[in-house]
Amino acid sequence: MNQYNYIDLFAGAGGLSLGFERIGFRGTLAVEQDKWAAETYSANHPSIPVHMRDIQTIDNSEIANLVKYPVDVIVGGPPCQGFSHANTTKRDPKDPRNSLFQDFVRFAKVVRPSICLVENVPGLLRTKMSSGRPAISAIEQAFRDIGYLAHWKILNAADFGVPQRRERLFVVAIRDDLSDVEFEWPTATHSTTEQDDLFAAANGQRQITLWEAIADLHQLCAGDPVPKSPYRSRPTNAYQSEMREKEVLVLENHEPMRHTQRIVERFAAIGHGQSEADVPAHLRPRKRGSSGEISGIVYDQNSRRQNPDEPCNAIVASSHTNFIHPYLHRNFTVREMMRIQSFPDWFVVKGKRAVLSKKLSAKKGYIDDVFLDQRAQIGNAVPPKLGAAVGKAVWNTLERMQNKVRHAA
């Protein structure tokens, strides 16, 4: 069996790495500047060295020294806010070549892997430079400039066994001398209940619902005693069994948030598919710094109760305020978010559970709280099952490349 190596840039907690490892790839390096995310990555990928550093400070000569093994694939998700970085007096403020994406390309130019895989938000396809040129076109050009042919596609995690409607943009770039080997995108393995029954008959799988994903976990409210066992029941479906692939004596990251009585009352007034915009006026959030005055601003996306019988809406970094449990009057625990993202139960997240924004933490002098908290790490991550689906397509492409080389010889 062939062995293929990858390095992970902007690695975060390591969801994409975990997906690639499921397929058989060997990670040889990860680069991540956030302290808590790097700690999470190291705890769950102990064999992969993590370089905790701002990628912009790593020069080309250092890249060559860091990469100690042949690299077949570079993967990574440059932060989407990087696509608006700029010195506006000299640069196009929306030019991705002026963003952290350029550092991904710089790594690829030095390392020369067979394939590059970039993950980002679908909204990137709507981003244009001030000249009117689509940002995705500039990304394709940046890869062409270093000798790679790029293709892109939006994939929905729910179509690949993740209990969540989460669309992500993937850009695959293949080195010019290998680009006659076509990259075949993964095909959906799970269908919605509204889709043609022929699909389900062929694949035998429906999309995983939120309740199917978390029902075996202890359904705790703040103040409930810590159960002696890690689960409330045996696995009742294949997804739960998969998440419980390794025995855990203590289920970490499952402590519920503490809410005030007023917030609990607000949540109790929210039905499935509703949000804080649907509650009576007296239960709506108060103005900050006021003496109890009700805010006139209502955010429809905040405190949205999820439907248990459908895949969850997309888990994002701010999901501790976006979503509430389908039955209990609280936000999701970190572990529930991890189940929804398809992280197995042995996977643990480091750092604090929740902190203020970086800007507010810095303003208040909370120097130790300027890193990504547990919820942000999980919300930012690529769902491992989606990562595995893309990783399998990358692996198959590398195999076809190897076969071509053998036949040529």
UniProtKB/TrEMBL annotation:
It catalyses: a 2'-deoxycytidine in DNA + S-adenosyl-L-methionine = a 5-methyl-2'-deoxycytidine in DNA + S-adenosyl-L-homocysteine + H(+). Keywords: Methyltransferase, Restriction system, S-adenosyl-L-methionine, Transferase. GO terms for molecular function: DNA (cytosine-5-)-methyltransferase activity. Its EC number is 2.1.1.37. The active site is at C80. Gene3D superfamilies: DNA Methylase, subunit A, domain 2 (3.90.120.10), Vaccinia Virus protein VP39 (3.40.50.150). GO terms for biological process: methylation. PANTHER family: CYTOSINE-SPECIFIC METHYLTRANSFERASE, DNA (CYTOSINE-5)-METHYLTRANSFERASE 1. This is Cytosine-specific methyltransferase. It comes from Azohydromonas lata.
